[in-house]
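Design request, tokens follow.
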């Protein structure tokens, strides 16, 4: 207890030191303030310089705030470390001129007794981007003024400030020549800036310390030295050692937690030196992971296994209920015109299979790039995110409904349009490509066994590797159909065409209608009865427009144009109703748990933490209405009276996270457990580490997981 109190006292002292030190110096010292360019003080010569002598309106020019620092003294980085204060600059600019923020070259560690600061010695150059609007009058000079404040320290610190002025000429066209006298300054400045940003880093508590795991791709092959500069005070102890090692293509750094390790932003600057001593730096924004998730990821999956899991997951996707309607369409397209013999039929089968695979892979590539881009931009999204957007659900319901009408023979859709869905007989490679894209579209929100671990691992990697894993998933989805197209023996197993095919085609309309019904139900969970009313109205408009188009098809061209116009108006109206669902929402309702019915509380991190503190067992179910796997699991494994009784007897708190609509808290929980989509089932015993259950759940798995829960909590209401 005494050591803990001393540690807290030290942490509080460190937290107050930078601000208190600066205020004391301002109050009792004689701060130096000079108006000139350069500004010369006893400790620093500061100047504001431009890379060129004039600027063209509409272009950007690099400026630099340069500090020539007295030997033995230093200024500070954006996070000054255990004490200090970074430089600041305020601009006085004419309208139409904008200046960007100070940019920070890589700092050095400056020991101060048992503590450490981050800063610069001798000379530091902070680049700044200056832009001038395109309508700035040519010939009118640009006058720039800036007021800067900085703290310079040795054994004691002196706050200093200065005002700077620059006047830049303007030219009509072309770039002004670089000033040779300034070339060395800007070259050195750019050499010290970060070489880029590393994605996929993970920061996890590891016993009494912190572990930073960074993908090694893009780093020098032979590392001679590594240091992580935390971007925010309190994340780590700045003076502590940072042991590091390379394991399976990832750089592991052991860090000592700071006073605010659980609150400070997990970002900073990674500085590495290669075997020749050349130094590079990279911005790092890590994702936080609990210790069990980080250890599970390191111990159970690596890059080769992630590819294997992705391929297996894609193969199993073909058996998932959400993909069944498209499987039926694929079967029909194979039987139709592709089961013949001879070179021409074989060539057609090969082209069909390759086109289908290309459709799957292209869709998966686009979805993966969009997902990774959204995550890189800070959005809390995961696998299946597109079905969290109600208008997208509506459009998919429209697509299945229209395809069903066409298959049933109620309406005749144009050959070109139906070939994109692959539902038209003889649609060829265009139809196969469309079928592949549609299969991937419907399969994307599903999560098959092996997929969760592969996708959760993928989003921690660099973009190229993450994209490769997701494309492997798509290849697994396309592989059975591709093999059927490429292997003649398999193709000869197909039944011969006949009159029965028209009956089969019409029968396949009903899986399409079933899929549309499921999507309307998903929308009801997302938006309530108001959303259902809108989508049903849209379906009526679509049916009316298609019926009208069918009725006017054989009329003279003038009347036929009116039919086309009316059909287009119906389509626009249906899309408008679909977009309107984005403004609707429906809350989730739950009730008390009983012995005959398992009910839940909405997931929240606070409820989970409170139950853990009370040593109460918890079962967490992360699900979504559009996830067929989740719904099947709940029906098979979580809806029986025996399971409800087991939960009640063991006093298990059942927390259900509904990811049907976007929820950053659930996205973060999934990421904490190395997952990027639902379902996810986690059981927390009263003591010990949580257990992640399989994605395909059975009643026996659930009951076995909670069998060890302490009966002392029996009777607790859930």
């Amino acid at each position: 207890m005494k050591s803990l109190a001393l540690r807290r006292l030290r942490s509080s002292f460190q937290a107050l030191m930078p601000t208190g030190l600066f205020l004391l110096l301002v109050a009792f010292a004689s701060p130096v303030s000079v108006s000139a360019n350069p500004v010369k003080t006893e400790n620093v010569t500061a100047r504001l310089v431009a890379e060129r002598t004039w600027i063209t309106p509409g272009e950007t020019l690099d400026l630099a705030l340069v500090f020539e620092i007295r030997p033995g003294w230093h200024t500070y980085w954006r996070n000054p470390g255990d004490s200090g204060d970074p430089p600041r600059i305020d601009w006085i600019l004419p309208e139409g001129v904008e200046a960007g923020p100070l940019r920070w070259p890589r700092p050095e560690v400056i020991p101060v007794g048992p503590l450490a600061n981050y800063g610069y010695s001798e000379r530091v150059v902070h680049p700044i981007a200056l832009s001038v609007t395109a309508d700035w009058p040519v010939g009118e000079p640009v006058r720039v003024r800036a007021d800067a404040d900085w703290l310079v320290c040795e054994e004691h610190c002196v706050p200093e400030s200065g005002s700077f002025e620059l006047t830049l000429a303007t030219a009509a066209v072309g770039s002004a020549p670089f000033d040779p006298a300034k070339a060395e300054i800007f070259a050195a400045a750019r050499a010290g800036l970060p070489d880029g940003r590393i994605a996929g880093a993970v920061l996890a508590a590891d016993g009494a310390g912190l572990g930073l795991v960074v993908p090694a791709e893009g780093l020098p092959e032979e590392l001679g030295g590594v240091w992580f500069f935390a971007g925010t005070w309190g994340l780590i102890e700045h003076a502590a050692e940072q042991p590091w090692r390379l394991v399976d293509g990832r750089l592991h750094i052991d860090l000592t937690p700071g006073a605010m390790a659980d609150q400070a932003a997990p970002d900073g600057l990674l500085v590495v030196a290669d075997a020749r001593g050349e130094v590079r730096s990279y911005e790092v924004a890590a994702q936080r992971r609990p210790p069990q998730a980080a250890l599970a990821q390191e111990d159970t999956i690596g890059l080769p296994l992630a590819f294997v899991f992705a391929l297996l997951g894609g193969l199993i996707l073909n058996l998932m209920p959400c993909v069944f309607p498209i499987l039926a369409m694929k079967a029909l397209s194979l039987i139709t015109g592709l089961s013949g013999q001879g070179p021409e039929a074989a060539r057609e089968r090969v082209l069909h299979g390759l086109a289908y695979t290309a459709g799957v892979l292209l869709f998966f590539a686009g979805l993966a790039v969009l997902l990774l881009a959204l995550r890189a931009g800070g959005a809390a999204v995961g696998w299946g995110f597109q079905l969290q957007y109600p208008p997208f659900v509506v459009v998919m319901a429209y697509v299945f409904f229209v395809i069903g009408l066409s298959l049933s023979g109620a309406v005749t859709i144009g050959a070109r349009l139906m070939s994109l869905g692959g539902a038209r007989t003889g649609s060829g490679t265009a139809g196969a490509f469309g079928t592949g894209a549609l299969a991937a579209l419907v399969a994307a929100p599903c999560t098959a066994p092996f997929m969760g671990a592969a996708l959760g691992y993928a989003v921690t990697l660099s973009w190229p590797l993450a994209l490769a894993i997701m494309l492997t998933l798509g290849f697994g989805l396309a592989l059975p159909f591709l093999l059927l197209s490429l292997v003649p023996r398999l193709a000869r197993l197909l039944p011969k065409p006949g009159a029965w095919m028209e009956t089969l085609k019409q029968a396949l309309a009903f899986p399409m209608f079933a899929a549309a019904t499921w999507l309307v139900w998903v929308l009801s969970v997302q938006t309530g009865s108001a959303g259902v009313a809108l989508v049903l109205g849209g379906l009526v408009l679509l049916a009316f427009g298609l019926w009208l188009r069918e009725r006017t098809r054989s009329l003279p061209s003038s009347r036929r144009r009116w039919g086309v116009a009316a059909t287009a108006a119906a389509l626009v109206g249906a899309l408008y109703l679909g977009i309107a669902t984005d403004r609707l929402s429906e809350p989730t309702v739950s009730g008390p748990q009983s012995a005959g019915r398992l009910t839940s509380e909405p997931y929240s991190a606070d409820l989970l933490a409170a139950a853990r503190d009370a040593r109460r067992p918890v079962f967490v179910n992360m699900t979504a209405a559009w996830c067929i796997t989740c719904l099947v699991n709940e029906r098979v494994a979580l809806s029986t009276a025996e399971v409800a009784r087991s939960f009640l007897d063991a006093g298990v708190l059942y927390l259900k996270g509904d990811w049907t609509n976007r929820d950053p808290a659930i996205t973060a929980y999934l990421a904490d457990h190395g997952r990027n989509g639902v379902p996810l089932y986690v059981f927390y015993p009263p003591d010990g580490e949580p257990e992640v259950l399989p994605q395909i759940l059975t009643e026996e798995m659930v009951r076995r997981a909670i069998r060890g829960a302490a009966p002392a909590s029996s009777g607790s209401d859930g």
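Comment from the thread starter after seeing the answer: thanks! The chain has four domains: 29-192, 197-289, 300-387+416-505, 601-713.
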